[in-house]
Design goal:
The structure is a homodimer of 166-residue chains.
Chain A: E1 4-14, H1 19-24, H2 32-55, H3 62-73, E2 79-80, H4 81-87, H5 95-104, E3 108-112, E4 120-124, H6 126-146, H7 152-165
Antiparallel strand pairs in A: 2-4, 3-4
Chain B binds a DNA duplex (30 and 30 nucleotides) through residues 61, 63, 80-82, 92-98, 101, 116-120.
DNA sequence: TGTTAAATCTTGTTTGAACAGATATTCATC
DNA sequence: GATGAATATCTGTTCAAACAAGATTTAACA
């Protein structure tokens, strides 16, 4: 956890400031806190839809895809279910069944951990790695198109503000 | 849709810049676009959980609550299902059943539109209005606590950036 | 006017999420 | 080493979301 101070001079064109009010067709102005919450929900929904559209041809949910990326990041080192749950973006109750589906599709394997037989160790398979390799450019492209409206500096500011909220 | 130019001088303390990397335990740095997407997902998940917790005592989902707020905003004017769908933050496929649940709970009523019998007009009931009145301070408080880490200027910037992405 | 298309809502089915309870293994303590 | 608590995962059930097809009413128009 670092502590730095950035000084940023930001010139922003406020083009679509009324978007949310347009959708909701509210007459009176909303508190800034509510507007922010609703805007985050709305943006999340838009991004989710776009990503899902990219993953649809591969029959993967966003969560399944993220788990595969987590496993790849391990580079062969074992991960147990708890680890996966901790690293998932949307906390889920049943990671077991998510992994089940990835096993059925042949993208991951599950072994009982010999050191601690309560745990299960999960690995990504060659098939899983190959799938990710195919998906990488697709998802990269989608993510870039999603964030295309902001330049690097603006994105950094956005991430900073989000991190302060979390 | 207005067009204005704001000049904002922003001094931001970057305190938790590494949060996402901490969770995912990734070694190599992520592209800024991916980081942004994951950060939005993560923030959305956190906010959703907090709001759900506030609504839980009232046995309302976030979507149900938002629909009630939309109906209240109409001040007695009829809204049909299509209108509601258009104004919902997360586009849903079956608004019918969402409204069904609100009817069962006695918060809204449904009538066939006489001018166009394909449409159904939906109104909020007195019970629904009373519920919202109870919920207002609770949700306001939650929303404020969610956004408490940012001051008004930062929130405005955040909303502007989000709007540019949408 | 009769046929077809469009708009609007509903229903059926399949899949995913949430929650609680069950199972299996390990750890701590006596 | 027997017992109860803690850890880690799995399973059952219930409820919500996604998707597609169906039903009803209106509009278009030859």
């Amino acid at each position: 956890m670092f502590e730095q101070i950035f000084i940023i001079h930001l010139y922003i064109q406020i083009l679509y400031m009324q978007q949310l009010e347009d959708i909701l067709k509210t007459k009176q102005p909303m508190p800034l806190s509510r507007k922010t919450v609703l805007n985050v929900f709305h943006l999340n929904s838009i991004i989710k839809d776009k990503l899902l559209l990219s993953l649809k041809p591969y029959d993967l949910s966003i969560e399944q895809f993220n788990v595969l990326r987590i496993l790849r990041g391990q580079k062969g080192q074992p991960v147990n279910l708890q680890d996966i749950q901790d690293r998932m973006i949307n906390k889920m109750s049943n990671t077991t069944r998510l992994v089940d589906k990835l096993i059925i599709k042949g993208y991951v394997e599950r072994f009982v951990c010999e050191n601690n037989r309560r745990k299960v160790e999960i690995f990504i398979t060659e098939t899983g790695l190959k799938l990710l390799k195919n998906l990488d450019p697709v998802v990269d492209e989608t993510e870039k198109s999603i964030t295309a409206a902001l330049n690097a500096e603006e994105l950094k500011i956005l991430n900073t503000l989000i991190n302060k909220l979390k």
